[in-house]
TrEMBL record:
Top-level taxonomic group: Bacteria
Assigned keywords, A-Z: Hydrolase
GO biological process: negative regulation of glycolytic process; regulation of pentose-phosphate shunt
Pfam family, one: His_Phos_1
Name the record gives this protein: Histidine phosphatase family protein
Length: 206
């Protein structure tokens, strides 16, 4: 039995195009994002998941990405794996915020404990993502049990966000990147996690 979890970052949005902080903002894919995903589907970069279990974070950009890649699939929502919430900084760029004292203090914090006004701290975000990963892993283990009795492979597909994926990868493979931001895949790309005896043991980028 093959056991894999596929983590896919949603496609390009206005937030990506304009370099905005937009974790909690429920914005759709940009036209460029739709076109790029269709191109990647034609290039067949995505893992097969015909009998897989599918998940999103419930935000428009993850729902659209799942539908464009795998079609109209029944799926569950794991809200704990949403992107970091930036509070008052949502939908604003560095240029918009660079002279705002609260922003300067926030980006200067090295401890990870400072939160943006109305938003999350890095530490709080990381704790939430770890809980989301625990939930996803648990659901995948149920899939493993199901296919062990019926035959086939255990496959889960999670469409989520760049910061979410980077945090998961940093948790699963500590010390393999100089900074967790290095784990962030391009929009529409991601990682396949392979499990052995229900434990995540290796990965492959796509």
């Amino acid at each position: 039995m093959k056991s894999q979890i596929h983590l896919i970052r949603h496609g390009i949005t206005e937030g990506n195009q304009r370099r905005l902080y937009y974790g909690a903002s429920d914005i759709p894919l940009a036209d460029e994002g739709v076109a790029e995903l269709k191109k990647l589907v034609k290039e067949a970069i995505y893992p097969q998941a015909d009998e897989g279990d599918f998940y999103t974070t419930g935000l428009k950009r993850t729902e659209q990405t799942l539908a464009l890649i795998y079609g109209d699939r029944e799926h569950e929502v794991i809200p704990e794996l949403k992107e970091m919430g930036f509070g008052d900084f949502e939908m604003k760029s560095y240029e918009d915020l660079k002279e705002v004292p609260e922003y300067v203090g926030w980006i200067s914090d090295k401890s990870g404990s400072a939160a943006s006004p109305g938003g999350e701290s890095i530490a709080g975000f990381s704790m939430r993502i770890k809980e989301g990963l625990r939930i996803l892993h648990g659901k995948h283990q149920l899939k493993e049990l199901s296919v062990r009795h019926s035959g086939g492979d255990a496959v889960s597909v999670m469409v989520c966000h760049g910061g979410t994926i980077a945090t998961i990868m940093d948790v699963c493979f500590p010390g393999q990147r100089e900074h967790f931001f290095k784990w962030i895949p391009d929009p529409g790309h991601g990682y396949t996690l392979t499990l052995e005896k229900s434990e995540i043991v290796r990965y492959e980028a796509f």
